[in-house]
């Protein structure tokens, strides 16, 4: 009986060990299964985040490409404007040169006219000068000899007093400006 009791005790203890191992093993599998489920959830979350990041990356690449195109357009426009500015500077220089040439030619012509009117009859000169614009008449009077200018102005006062007055006022202003400088 002792043998039977001992065999039974061994069987019970083997069975207990098996049951204990079974519970331990099944708890471990359950825990591993839970871990596996958690890992799968994390993997799914990571995949979703990766997809969002990829979409964001594509959006950023698209915006970067758009910005690059805009920058290229701006640079192209800047080059065009710079070229246009250079052309305008050249045109301005040409205009300045032409203006100087015109002024020089005008001065030569006025000098020639002054020589003509210095020797012309005052009445004839006054008739022609009264048809000029005031600025030209003033420039011409500045070149006339004082004697001829006085005689012509006297005749202008008789034929066109308003014009003579305007020319005289401008000549006076010019004289005042020269004496104050």
Structural class: mainly alpha
State the end-to-end CA separation. Answer: 148 Å
The major sheet is characterized as: none
Secondary-structure element order, as H and E?
Answer: HHHHH
Number of strands: 0
Residues in β-strands, percent: under 5%
Q: Can I get a quick summary?
A:
It is built from 5 helices and no strands. The chain is an all-alpha fold and about 180 residues long.
Task: Describe what you observe in this structure.
The protein is mainly α. 94% of the residues lie in helices and 0% in strands. It has 5 helices and no strands. The chain is rod-shaped and about 150 Å long. The model has no long low-confidence stretch (mean pLDDT 85).
Features of this protein?
mainly alpha; 5 helices
Topology:
Blueprint: H1 2-119, H2 122-129, H3 134-143, H4 146-159, H5 161-180
């Amino acid at each position: 009986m002792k043998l039977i009791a001992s065999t039974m005790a061994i069987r019970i203890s083997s069975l207990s060990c098996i049951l204990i191992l079974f519970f331990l093993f099944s708890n471990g599998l359950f825990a591993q299964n839970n871990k596996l489920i958690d890992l799968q959830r994390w993997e799914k979350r990571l995949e979703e985040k990766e997809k969002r990041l990829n979409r964001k990356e594509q959006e950023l690449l698209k915006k970067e490409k758009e910005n690059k195109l805009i920058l290229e357009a701006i640079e192209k426009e800047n080059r065009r404007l710079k070229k246009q500015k250079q052309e305008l500077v050249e045109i301005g220089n040409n205009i300045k040169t032409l203006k100087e040439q015109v002024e020089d030619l005008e001065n030569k012509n006025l000098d020639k006219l002054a020589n003509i009117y210095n020797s012309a009859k005052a009445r004839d000169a006054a008739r022609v000068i009264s048809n000029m614009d005031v600025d030209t008449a003033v420039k011409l009077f500045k070149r006339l000899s004082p004697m001829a200018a006085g005689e012509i102005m006297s005749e202008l006062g008789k034929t066109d007093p308003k014009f003579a007055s305007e020319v005289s006022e401008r000549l006076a202003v010019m004289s005042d400006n020269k004496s104050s400088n």
